[in-house]
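During the first year of the project, the team set up a workflow for recording each protein of interest as an amino acid sequence followed immediately by a discrete structure-token representation. This format lets reviewers and collaborators read both layers of information side by side without switching files. As required by the reporting guidelines, we include two representative entries from the current panel. The first entry is reproduced here exactly as it appears in our internal archive.
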Amino acid sequence: MAGDNNSKVDVSAEWDLRSHIVKKVKQYVHQHQYETALFWADKAASLSHGDIEEVYWIAQCLYLTGQYHRAVHAIKSRKFDKKDIACRYLASKCHFECKEYQEALDVLDMIDFTAKTPNKHKKEESMVSEFDHGIPQSQLKGSMCLLRGKVYEAMNNRALAAESYKEALQVDVYCCEAFDLLVRHNMLTAKEEQALLESLPFEQQCQEGDLDLLKFLYRNKLNKFDKPNAPSQQPGVDALHDNLDVVTNLAERHYYNCDFRTCYKITSEVLNVDPYHTQCLPIHIAALIELKKSNALFYLAHKLVDMYPNQAVAWYAVGCYYLLIGKFELARRYFSKSATLDRNYGPAWLAFGHAFAAEGEHDQATAAYFSASQIMRGCHLPMLYIGLEYGLTNNPKLAEKFFKQALSIAPEDPFVLHEMGVVAYHNHDWKTAFRYFSDALRIVQVIGSEIMTEKWEPLLNNLGHVCRKMGNYDEALEYHQQALVLCPQNPSTYSAIGFIHSLKLNFAQAVDYFHKALGVKRDDTISVTMLADTIVLYIDDIEPCEGGDIAEMEATFDITKATTTTSKDESRDDITSGPDSTIEEVEMED
């Protein structure tokens, strides 16, 4: 009996010692002393003769110290990946970090957690061990679905990646990383995002106090390019008005509203608090480009390269700086490096296309935009830019096809509506063009709270051109005058107004506006031609005054004609062709 009691005491003492050491391991992990934690985890495993709990902590410490293959061996050599979910997840995670994607998938697919959609890759059912390692089963299952999605995305299978991310959210609605990847990588269209949000089991998994908060945070993350108006804040989350993620989402909405100054102001405030806020940096860089702040962009790019040389956003910022100052070859080099570091970084591919398009390399630009379209399936911008490139290469049919695809993704985006109006204009379908332009203007006025930026000046001018074609001269003049308010130094606007006045037989006013256009740009071809023609009509229309010096008038006219002829014949080699923004103004026709 005494021997049995001593045996029980020894076992109890050994168990207490193991528990004490495992507790120490967890403490050192929390203190980021991973080597110390690994040392004691190894000793605990020896005391337990290799039990699952202690071996799991050995593998965990090996993972934290970057020894991925050792961690996999520690788990698989004991076949714990077939007995324990947490061990299986950790082994797959190690394979993923080593870029052994198929091996990671093989380990993950030993078990299926989704009863609704059976896993066709399922190999065998496994028993779940009694150890939970401090991780709730729902969170662990969600983590495995999330990891499966990352593996599929790394293997360029974005369709299965999106399905895995959706499964992760269905299993664990708090798995915000899965939702963020779906939205940030543009895997879903706006309608699909909304349908996903409505299908999530918030009521079943959320506590009463978390329900409104989680719904608001997810809704706030949704893509903003289609309907940039900000969602109303839910009751009980007022304290989040200064949260950096929420504020950054607001800045992104301002950016898609073309309110670049407000966007820049907000992103600057965010970066003052957190200088390397990963979600804010791309938006801040885009705002710097639109505001042409090259010095600030230069400083930010160098700071990012120094701090995060292995991050795609750092080299993306460098490429954007060279794109802004017009060194397009250097810009392409750095955009290529950014896309190499992270193949799924959509902004780098779009900017890569811009750098080609800026030099008229339409084929290369189109190829870059096609790569972006494969990565950003739920975003309409690649389709929009592809359509623009086809339009510049005189392929209106293909351009219209891609504009329609962009419109199907973002039916209320004013940029796409504008380009559809341009296509209709060139097809001489004035009514359809006016409808598209008017719809775009209505949306711009709504999202901009009646305050328009100069980005939309071509839209107003194009409305004026369409109204002129339909014979509505007064309405056309009104739109052109509004365009002048946004951009007072555009010679094409002055020449368009002069043309309308000449059609209304107001030759004096027409001549005045043509002179204003030439005052801004003395070699404007349309203004030179129309000025000469209008002066001829003006002189034919004027009756000579009694005692008037006809010879003097003719001499003045000869001087004007000589001046216009000289201007008309001047070389235009210094003028670059092609639009420098998303919006392209239609050419005024005689």
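The second entry, processed by the same pipeline in the following quarter, appears below.
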Amino acid sequence: MTRVGIVLLTLVIALGAVVAAVAVSPFWWFAAVPLALVGATAARDLLQRRHSVLRNYPFLGHARFLLERIRPELQQYFIERNYDGRPFDRDVRSIVYERAKGTDAEEPFGTERDVYRTGHEFLVPSMAPCPVPRTPPRVRIGGPDCARPYDMALLNVSAMSFGSLSSNAVLALNGGAAAGGFAQDTGEGGLSEYHLRPGGDLIWEIGTGYFGCRTDEGGFDAAEFADKSAHDHVKCVSLKLSQGAKPGIGGVLPGAKVNAEIARVRDVPPGRTVISPPYHQVFSTPRELVRFIARMRELSGGKPAGFKLCVGSRAQFLAVCKAMLEEGTAPDFIVVDGAEGGTGAAPLEFADHMGTPLTEGLLTVHNALVGAGLRDRVKIGASGKIATGADLVKRMVQGADYGNAARAMMFAVGCIQAQKCHTNTCPTGVTTQDPHRARALDVDDKTLRVQRFQDATVAGALQLMASMGVTDPAQLRPRMLRRRIDPFTERSYAELYEWLEPGQLLVEPPASWAADWKTADPDRFTV
């Protein structure tokens, strides 16, 4: 029986109990009143549009909100845990919800931070703060080989595919991007009508499965790629090398979620589990990678082209830098995905033990590009557990030009981390292809929440920067972020890490980089 049928049956039984109470015995009121309350509450839950859980689980869904109010006893487990079981530093989900709903407020009575905890980081305020810019700055993406550069917002929607997400979730994310003037990464699952319909800017991501531009044999279809990337809403094209939460393995979309529509978008057979290979067919060396990025740019009509990776061997990335220098071309952007990034489809061993955290990954990519004299041509995006303005500012201090958020954007559209992503039974309609469950996610309401969250988060970042005495991310310096290394000592990022000078690797590599620079070979990925 459907949800509507159960609610109607409850109301009919309640009405019968009322009739019995009037005509037979007043004792029937003990049944009539509770049944009427349950039926009325369930009917209201079905009709309201703010809470997807209540639309999918009328009346029963209120138990979830009750549990969230029992704090702090249940907060650690129900509120502060992410996909891989490790706690957030703060109640990040609540912060995202408040901003998405437009109810973000300052918290009085001091801080909950343990400022003397080893590893605690803090931004350095200035004695001469600046006014907060009226208009958020944007980042120009596009090097000398790019004919159609794009001005990227400071915070954008990170890669999440249609298929992994429901059609309504994709519509809400792209609608929020259109309303707020930021971009949405499509993920590797292809370019669907739900990405295109709202009119938001898109970064079309291509993975190892080449979904959406795939030959019958599973290879890259250049003609299909050129045709789709020409769409006006596609502003950049990106090649996914690896994902932070599971570098070295491909994605999996269970067959139960591969309906006819998803199969058509991905160019795969319906009803069969889709597995992305762990490696690409279009390149096998750093030089071939650089050439293929240049080909993607050419096929797209000169739009910015780049790649995403979870950083591994520093020598391998330096080999890519050498290939850029020798080929005379470079990506327009590189997105660094940190190992702390989330996904509902990562083996536990990979989530816990594989991949470089975002801080070290950003430092590696930024310094390698600076040292090779390429940093002015290549912009760097950061992805991995970015949810607040402070997260964004820290990542820009560490070398990023802009940030992408996935998990926080899912919270904005209603995700409650039920961890049912792979089962097709998501209670909020975010990660399901069940049309009845997906329908519970109201697109108009969640579109507004996505836009509000992004706007409030960027505004928070700008306010923090103004307090630090800067008005543009380009003015941020490593000395502006400090970390406590023991209860009595703290150091700035300028002191904790080595920062290369422009072109330093080409002239005289520092001792700590010399061996990797020498090992780096543009014609092979050295293990």
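For the second entry, the following points were noted during internal review. The chain has two domains: 3-79, 150-518. Confidence is low (pLDDT under 50) at residues 70-90. Both points are flagged for discussion at the upcoming steering committee meeting.
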